[in-house]
Amino acid sequence: MVVEFFAFGVQVYAGHRGEAGATIRLGLSVSWAIASAAAVGSSHLRGNTPCQDAYLVDTLPMILGEPALMAFVADGAGSASMAEQAAQAAVGTAAEHCRQHANMIGASFDAAFISQLVRSGRAAMVSLADNAGLPVREFACTLLGVLAFRDQTLAFQIGDGGIVLDHGDGLALAITPMSGEYVNMTHFLIDDDAETRVAVQTSARVERMALFSDGLQRLALSLQDLTPHAPFFAPFFQTLGKVPSPTREQLDQALEQFLSSDKVNARTDDDKTLILACRVA
Q1: Inter-residue contact 6 to 255 (CB < 8 Å)
Q2: Is 87 helix (H, G, I), strand (E, B) or coil?
């Protein structure tokens, strides 16, 4: 079967994909349909620079009766020489911190837990910098994530990019993307005050969600009021919710093609990462 979707004036057909690549494959994870992809920005291609975004989607063990979904996106700073490695380490460290915490008896996932996660992530960046003999600023990256439980959702963000959630009453931006003191500046996981600066939102059960790096902010959000641009998201969620399970893993290829398309690159020259997830029966 061939998957088709049409978004942002881009029509994409994707056939079956073979063995999974380095990125997380999309598929049905118990009660979630998930699509995720990243694409290198056109400016990075011109400069022969690799994609400096990283993402991770996985489930946590049975918590309150069902597995919880965790999703993370990190974006290495363009000024950081180890941006790619930093982003990969950030999402990996965040996921491992969640796994270890989930195994603790009586573990609670709240703002205090997120502070610990950020502290752990910053410590990982410092360790990488020490081992490489480099200043920690060379490992600067943003980090955002969502933990979706049966009846509760925990979102957090340090830096730019976006998290869009739908609790059954429409799409809404969970946290305002962070900007720094100057234009095109933001905050990073390595910052001394990252643990206190991180923004955290606790909300009710989420039905649909999207996480994206700042390369998609101009497409995914209305810049006037920072609200989700519904026409951007609608085709993805409509397709994700109706594609039969055996063909869902084809959507990662289609999503990557969309992110790499000329029309998208005409609006942004940065790396682009998009994670989409919706609950299914």
Answers
A1: no
A2: helix
**Which residues have a Cβ under 8 Å from the Cβ of 214 and sit 6 or more positions away?**
75, 142, 159, 160, 161, 162, 177, 186, 270
Instruction: To the nearest 10°, report the CA torsion of 195, 70, 84, 93.
Output: 60
Q: What is the DSSP string of 257-271?
A: HHHTSHHHHTT--S-
Q: What digits encode the pLDDT tens for the residues 247-260?
A: 667 788 889 999 99
Question: Which domains are assigned to the chain?
Answer: 3-279 (3.60.40.10)
Question: Six-digit token pair at 210?
Answer: 């999207």
Cβ-in-10-Å burial (0-12, 13-18, 19+) of 19 comes to: exposed
CA distance 183 to 232: 26
0.70 exceeded by pTM: yes
